[in-house]
Specification:
The complex is a heterodimer of chains A (745) and B (156).
Chain A (H helix, E strand, L loop, with lengths): L17 H6 L14 E7 L5 E8 L9 E3 L26 E2 L5 E7 L2 H8 L2 E7 L6 H6 L10 E9 L3 H7 L2 E9 L11 E7 L2 E6 L4 H12 L6 E5 L12 H16 L3 E4 L2 H7 L6 E9 L5 E13 L5 H10 L9 E10 L13 H19 L3 H8 L19 H13 L16 E13 L5 H5 L2 E6 L5 E4 L9 H13 L6 E3 L18 H27 L6 H11 L3 E6 L8 E2 L4 E2 L4 E13 L6 E11 L6 H20 L5 E2 L2 E2 L18 E6 L16 H4 L1 H13 L5 E2 L3 H10 L3
Chain B lengths: L1 E6 L2 E6 L6 H8 L18 E4 L2 E4 L12 E3 L12 H8 L9 H14 L5 H7 L11 H16 L2
Helix pairs in contact in B: 2-5, 3-5
Bound molecules: FE2/S2 (inorganic) cluster (2 copies).
Chain lengths: 745, 156
């Protein structure tokens, strides 16, 4: 038993879900079965753009035990509620098919193989339309998909006066064009959901990041009240953003089937469907121009960003916003203009993926910074240190950094580590003659939490309670998707309450049992929601102590107070709402002000070896220093950094989603590869702690920042190794060969 | 078709269509849901089980081939609630995050440690290369497995 006053924060306690996960007992959605449960499947479009004329169910097939659903079965408004009301749950007859693999009908039945067989007996009659398949085609606007210009959303960010004059006066101008491709989240658990109706209420369980997003979407689709929709999260096998918005679509589908069939329905995507149809990281084109003076300072920046949003708005405006806000990087720049736009195309909608727009623009500016150092003949690390933002400096939006800046520390930590011998037993490529080696560096930052005043609008709520059994419970809608949310909430609550971690349980999120603490996104779970957990635990503790005083009990023993309260009175809960720290102001119209309450800072060094014959790249060393404010659970934090680092290296070098006529051509793990333990280098991870005064125990976000910079570090290393400029992600062997053959130097 | 085989140490008989995948039979007929499906095509290793002591992808194996064989699943790794050294190390070193790959990782790591107890880190990465994990970047998984190997050596 732990004494009050003991802090679990900063200690790597065993994960609360560890035992269940290593023993195979953790229950994911596909492990759940219900009596009478039917298996569902989704009929999807076979063209990228067209008008749906009819769906024909083969009369010769035996449909007796198959339930079919089309848009005609949707009685309410046919869209999946999110930001705009543009994406239908099923394409209506006579309506537009906007992308390949768009849902047009649903079927379910008791026998999985029969349902699979039935899929081949459904035909679609479609009048095909010319498809818009690239950013360029969308901007040309010969075919209109959205508004009168195909632009879902545009933002402009400006600072200082006289941009043209600033460039004219600059001693050097560095110009570049950067393209980064789509990336598949490739969570190992595919998307899955189960629905059943009980009386008039809808119950949904599944793999998800944001139970209340689904709650909202279902209320709107079926016209139900709050209490009539219950969304619960099953143990979720990874998300990385991919289970932020798409699960609302899947929930709509199982709910529609379950309603018509009058039985529980489960849909689990197979891998090919998941890769073909669900959201990915937005492809992005950045044109980036920097003006430099003779002293090696950045004097002007002109950035033009275009994202491919895919067929529907989904969350793209927010992705664009984050991309724009991060596009200058952690550098001082007095005069700048950033124009960003999100385009509509006939590709499956792109969406949330770890980093949320920032990795794309980070790749561009960190290539630019490297090139600038080259032009000036400066050491790339020195150049970064000279121009980096420091305490008291002003960001691109005019935000003065008042605290928690680690821009120098992360650089110094990485450089100190690089002085040391590489880890033993490093995976070296087989001895190749003339292997080309290079070293690359990157420095970046990531705004933690929602942009601007987003948290004020959201007003996240958490309750900490003593239940009827006298156990402490944390009730929040923040999901554990592997990032360790439940464990860190336990640590924070136990520390505040002064009880052992074993005495605190985090309730598996379920909209009937937990208040809305907001979505599990934007690196906000520890920093923002963890902070609400801390406040709620404090409030509960005070209430318990007041109760103890009134009864003449020992107020030092909170556990005993909880037990006494449970026995005599029953449950006691304390709910708190998030309050933003004072002095954070952001103007959504002008894009001026405090874009984020605080930033995490990171630096990455990558050593590559390139095989001169095959152009295969081996990452020989990857040193990553990431500032997280305070590591509530150092091993979990390390795991977050390393997982993100590896996804970033994968994006840089191996991961490629191939499209043809708007259809994903490599929808499998065999063809859409992600790195294995063999490609992964020995990761040298350094946790830096520059506390954020308004985060719990100083913590700020960690989930996304490790995704932002490693790709640029890889490209910079390739330039060092091969003397050419690599400005496209992924840098596959064929891309490298192309550049070496005569691409721009 | 009737199939007799040993499952986690017990003699079992089952009547199934011979082409059913071993993975489905384990998950659906025996309710052993610890083995997971990540790809269904032998790429991810989430469905790893032992057949006659060898680690295999159960999504690729028709159950008919199990006649007379000995099958072990992740549910057999712990004995009487006592997790195996590999399982304990995965928790302690942070080798599990979302956990969907973890049963397969635990099985493959156990097999790897049996086959090559003195494997280096680089070699262990090769042995584990058939098991994909998207969460960890593999570093903490390799840490866990190597530490379990070291502990075995220390304790003979
Ligand atoms: S499910 Fe068997 S290898 Fe992926
Ligand atoms: S822990 Fe999530 S895939 Fe490995």
């Amino acid at each position: 038993m732990t004494k009050p006053g003991h802090s679990f924060v900063g200690h790597s306690v065993n994960r609360v879900d560890g035992h269940a996960k290593v023993s195979g007992r953790a229950i994911y959605v596909d492990d759940i079965s219900m009596p009478g449960m039917l298996h569902g499947r989704t009929v999807r479009s076979k063209v990228a753009h067209g008008t749906l004329k009819d769906i024909v169910f083969d009369a010769a097939f035996d449909w007796s035990d198959i339930t079919t659903v089309t848009a005609k079965d949707i009685t309410g408004p046919n869209f999946v509620a999110l930001m705009e009301e543009d994406q239908p749950a099923l394409v209506p007859m006579g309506g537009k098919i906007m992308h390949h693999d768009e849902p047009v009908a649903l079927i379910c039945g008791p026998d999985k193989s029969k349902v699979d067989a039935a899929m081949a007996h459904i035909d679609q009659q479609v009048d095909e339309l010319p498809a818009v398949l690239s950013i360029d085609e969308s901007r040309a606007a010969n075919t209109l998909l959205y508004g009168d210009d195909n632009i879902f959303k545009a933002y402009t960010l400006e600072k200082g006066e006289g941009l043209d004059e600033a460039f004219a006066a600059a001693d050097h101008i560095v110009e570049g064009e950067y393209f980064t491709g789509a990336q598949e989240q490739m969570y190992i658990e595919t998307q899955g959901m189960i629905a059943h109706w009980q009386d008039e209420s809808l119950h949904i369980t599944g793999s998800m990041q944001c139970p209340y997003y689904i709650h909202n979407a279902m209320k709107s689709l079926f016209g139900l009240e709050d209490e009539a929709v219950v969304i619960s999260q099953a143990v979720t096998g990874g998300g990385f953003g991919g289970k932020e918005e798409y699960p609302s679509m899947l929930a709509a589908h199982v709910a529609l089937l379950a309603k018509k069939a009058g039985a529980p329905v489960k849909i689990i995507y197979d891998r090919s469907e998941d890769v073909a149809a669900t959201t990915k990281r937005h492809p992005c084109l950045v044109k980036h121009r920097l003006g430099l003076n003779a002293h090696g300072e950045i004097v002007a920046a002109d950035v033009d960003i275009t994202f491919d949003g895919g067929a529907y708005v989904t969350l793209s405006p927010v992705v664009l916003s984050r991309g724009v806000l991060h596009s200058i990087g952690p550098y001082k720049c007095p005069t700048l203009r950033v124009v960003g736009r999100m385009m509509a195309t006939n590709t499956p909608p792109h969406g949330a993926y770890r980093g949320f727009g920032a990795p794309q623009t980070t790749f561009a500016y960190e290539r630019q910074i490297d090139k600038a150092a080259r032009v000036l003949g400066m050491d790339p690390v020195e150049f970064r240190l000279r121009n980096r933002l420091n305490l008291g400096d002003e960001t691109a939006t005019g935000q003065i950094l008042k605290n928690s800046v680690a821009s120098e520390k992360v650089v110094r930590e990485v450089m100190a580590q690089a002085e040391k011998e590489p880890p033993n037993d490093i995976c070296m490529p087989k001895a190749v003659q003339d292997v080309k080696r290079g070293r690359g560096f990157a420095l970046y930052y990531h705004g933690a939490g929602f942009t601007g005043s987003g948290e004020d609008r959201l007003k996240g709520r958490v309750a900490v309670a003593v239940n009827k059994q006298g156990e402490f419970e944390v009730r929040s809608a923040s999901t554990d998707i592997g990032q360790g949310a439940f464990t860190i909430f336990t640590q924070i609550a136990a520390t505040t309450l002064g009880v052992d971690v074993a005495n605190v349980k985090v309730v598996q999120p379920n909209t009937k049992m937990v208040p809305d603490s907001g979505p599990t996104v934007a690196s906000r779970t520890c920093m923002v929601v963890g902070g609400i957990v801390e406040q709620a635990a404090n409030g509960l503790k005070e209430k318990l102590q007041a109760y103890g005083e009134s009864k003449g009990l020992d107020c030092g023993d909170v556990l005993a107070l909880a037990e006494a309260h449970a026995k005599d009175v029953g449950e006691l809960a304390f709910e708190t709402t998030y309050k933003s720290p004072p002095g954070i102001h952001f103007d959504d119209q002008t894009y001026r002000g405090d874009a984020y309450p605080c930033y995490g800072w990171a630096a990455c060094l990558v050593d590559v070896a390139v095989d001169p014959d095959t152009y295969e790249v081996t990452v020989e060393r990857c040193i990553h220093a990431v500032d997280v404010g305070k590591a509530v659970h150092p091993i979990i934090v390390k795991g977050q950094i390393e997982g993100g680092t590896m996804q970033a290296l994968g994006w840089a070098l191996w991961e490629s989603v191939l499209y043809k006529n708007g259809k994903v051509m490599n929808p499998s793990m065999t063809d859409c590869i992600i790195p294995t333990a063999m490609e992964a280098p020995e990761l040298e991870t350094i946790i830096v702690e520059e506390p954020y005064p308004h985060g719990p125990h100083g913590a700020k976000g960690v989930g996304e920042i490790p995704m932002d910079g490693p790709a640029a570090a890889v490209a910079n290393a390739l330039q060092d190794a091969l003397g050419k400029s690599f400005d496209v992600v992924p840098m596959l062997p064929e891309t490298i060969a192309e550049v070496l053959k005569g691409g721009p130097a | 078709m009737k199939i007799d085989f040993t499952l986690n140490g017990e003699q079992r008989e089952i009547d199934v269509t011979p082409m059913s995948r071993l993975l489905d039979v384990l998950r659906c007929d025996f309710e052993l849901t610890g083995s997971k499906e990540g790809c269904g095509e032998g790429e991810c290793g989430a469905c790893t089980v032992f057949v006659d002591g060898k680690a295999v992808n159960s999504c690729l194996i028709p159950v008919a081939q199990m006649q007379g064989r000995e099958v072990r699943t992740v549910e057999s790794l712990a004995s009487n609630e006592m997790l195996s050294d590999v399982q304990q190390a995965l928790i302690k070193f942070g080798g599990t995050q979302c956990g969907i790959c973890t049963p397969g990782i635990a099985m493959m790591a156990s097999a790897a440690l049996e086959a090559e107890p003195n494997a280096s880190r680089a070699r262990m990465r090769e042995l584990m290369a058939g098991n994909l994990c998207r969460c960890t970047g593999y570093q903490l998984i390799i840490d866990a497995v190597i530490s379990a190997a070291e502990a075995r050596r220390r304790h003979g």
